[in-house]
Protein: Putative ABC transporter ATP-binding protein
Amino acid sequence: MNARTHETEGGLGTMDGSVTPVQETGLAAGPIVVEARNLRKVFTPQDGNPPVVAVEDVSFQIRRGEFTVLLGPSGCGKSTTLYMIGGFEKVSGGELMLHGKPVAGPGPDRGIVFQDFVLFPWRTVLGNIMFGLEMMRRFDRAEIRARAEHYVQHLGLAGFENAYPSTLSGGMKQRIAIARTLATEPEFMLMDEPFAALDAQTRDRLIADLSRIAGEQNTTFVFVTHDVREAIRLADRIIVFSPRPSRVVQSIPVTLPRPRDSYDPRLLEIDRELRSLIGRHASDDPAF
Structure:
């Protein structure tokens, strides 16, 4: 990691060296599967305006099986970083490695869930979940249906298999989008603020469900948010971004066991320390 990144294993290390002790989860440190080295992204407008530096000198590592959260204020470049990992945006400078090789474009090893639900209105719940499996062309019809039905149960969609998206709430629609992506069993699950448009109660339920799923699977999650509470309820590691042009302020392991209680004093202490850290770098940014 670059000189700007500070990390303290076994707890939340602040820039002044203090550590919030937390309990180990027992999560084994897997091999590094994603590595960014001095990553840079510049957008060049077509209207002749000056280039926009979205990401500047970002370095971090992601290990197999970790739930990594990219946390930062709106517009800081964290979603752009996610899309570069997904292969949807090209790297302007530095290196972005996937299993030691440069990211060359999208691939079936990386599934993505967006903030918008991106469902097919003419397909039922089950049909939407089956879609990704159909596109893979690896399974027969019976296997596709069986896999889709498994994730219907797993995501709390039982009883709604034959419903259409227009009849469902935002939370249910996002469950479908998550189930559709998980059903293809990608190595990497990329999630771009998937709960941002949901009400607080629905968001809390989905955070709890996603935390449970993450604990049951060996999928590597990369999750973008600007919500501190959301980050510490989900993450094994939080990579904190500065305001644009983004840099990594700190990479923080969160080793609290799952499931995590929002009112756990240890969680509240991590929240306090994390907000203090963020405040020193983004005191004038309302996104936090």
